[in-house]
Write a structure and sequence with these properties.
By secondary structure, the chain is mainly α. The protein contains 13 helices and no strands. The longest helix has 28 residues.
């Protein structure tokens, strides 16, 4: 992989990681349409560390508050004593489905699941589910009203992101809408819930790449990919939060359906 390819794919990763349009799908189809080789799940997961850094810095106040609340609750041996500690531990537990299923189906996710027909179907399928959630949800709640079991429901939705084309942010925003969060709060919680999963998968794949000589990617392309993912990820977060305060998810639904249809229509 050249430095230019890594730079471009890092930008693609940063933008599509947070918009509900699937970063995995775009990191698969953009190289395919440009005639580049498939970067693989390892490269995709490692450059997610750039988007992880953008989330950590953008939501640093929330991250510090929830982390401190969790540590205090451990020291006091009262894990659910406050709203912040309940939310922090709910996020930890809500991450378990994507971790367990991700490890259990790791080989399938890295190979068969990256077929273009699966990505096309997943893009359209999640678009329909997102539209239904937008159409029929109450959209009146915020993070202060989010209970433990509601977080677990969103966590189960997040596990859909293991299917390339579904989108982690799309599936968790859908889950947030289904439990009654408004659009902006659903997006905000999507970012917070994704932190452990992005960190875990990124570090795991980085460890695996380091033991295989970075899989032929080289250190410089990986660093460029991480850096460009960080910058574009920050811009994407800012855009999405502003957009969802006054608009719905219909634009993303239509884009997903169009992209999925084009993929399926152009398959050999």
């Amino acid at each position: 992989m050249s430095a230019f390819e890594a730079l471009v794919l890092g930008i693609v990763q940063g933008v599509t990681e947070f918009l509900p349009i699937s970063s995995t799908a775009h990191l698969r189809i953009v190289p395919h349409w440009l005639g580049w080789s498939d970067p693989g799940t390892e490269f995709s997961a490692v450059i997610q560390l750039g988007t992880l850094l953008s989330v950590l810095l953008y939501f640093r106040e929330d991250v510090v508050r929830l982390t401190c609340a969790a540590l205090r609750s451990l020291a006091d041996r009262k894990l659910f004593a406050t709203q912040d500690s309940r939310l922090a531990w709910s996020i930890v537990v809500g991450t378990l489905p994507v971790v367990i299923l991700g490890l259990g189906f790791k080989d399938w996710i890295k190979t068969e699941a990256r077929q273009l027909w699966i990505i096309g179907v997943a893009l359209i399928g999640l678009a329909i589910l997102l539209w239904l959630a937008e159409r029929y949800s109450r959209r009146r709640g915020n993070l202060d009203t989010l209970g433990f079991w509601s977080v677990q429901g969103i966590g189960l939705c997040q596990a859909l992101a293991l299917i390339p084309g579904c989108s982690r942010s799309g599936s968790t925003i859908m889950g947030g809408l289904l439990v009654g969060l408004d659009r902006a709060e659903a997006a905000r919680f999507s970012f917070l819930l994704g932190l452990p999963a992005i960190l875990g998968s990124g570090l795991f794949e980085l460890w695996e790449l380091s033991h295989s000589g970075f899989g032929g990617h080289g250190t410089l392309p990986l660093l460029l990919g991480i850096a460009s993912a960080f910058v574009s990820g920050w811009v994407a977060i800012e855009f999405l939060l502003r957009f969802l305060r006054t608009h719905g998810t219909l634009l993303f639904v239509l884009y997903r359906i169009l992209l999925g249809s084009v993929i399926l229509a152009t398959l050999p």
